[in-house]
Amino acid sequence: MKSLWIVIFITVLIWSGISPKDQFTWFLEVLPALIAGVLLLVTYNSFRLTSMLYFFILLHCIVLMIGGHYTYAEVPFFDGLFGAERNNYDKVGHLFQGFVPALLAREILIRKNVVNGNVWRNVIIVSICLAFSAFYELIEWWVALMSGEDAEAFLGTQGYVWDTQSDMGLALLGAIFSLLLLSKIHNRQLKKVTGN
């Protein structure tokens, strides 16, 4: 499983890095995937995650690498999708930005026994995801300020005035969907990993 994950990750990363639309944007978009990959390798023996979480982290990394290769505003098949006036591939990325961190936060909070009770745990998980999404939007803003016009592809607003708010809204929906759809399956996998 670990080897297959690494092979897929590296294969998509190499493809993504071959003649990307914009090298600077590629680096910015792929950097979180690279950080995640390193963290997962470093913690694999000391804090092994559920196979479902590894799968969704890999999917999220692939979303980032595809966005890095084309830039989010120019990913094929997303132009005019469902009658939209803009390429909405970045919205897929922001949905994942809530969906996958919700599973990660849930797994850490449960395994470390940080919060008692499902309701408070879910509130904290959603709050973590919103904080993460807001922080990412701040990073995009800082990059735009530091690099000027070069950041337009990274920001991916495509002239949409509510881009930042809709990005965070989609991360919120992703976190809620993740908790609603996957909590029971996640609980079963957690029992296998922890033996409880």
From TrEMBL:
InterPro entries with a match to the protein in the record: YjdF, YjdF-like
Top-level taxon of the source organism: Bacteria
Keyword Transferase appears in the UniProt entry: no
Residue intervals passing through the bilayer: 30-47, 54-72, 92-110, 122-144, 164-182
Presence of the UniProt keyword Cell membrane in the record: no
Keyword terms, alphabetized: Membrane, Transmembrane, Transmembrane helix
Name this polypeptide is given: DUF2238 domain-containing protein
Organism: Colwellia demingiae
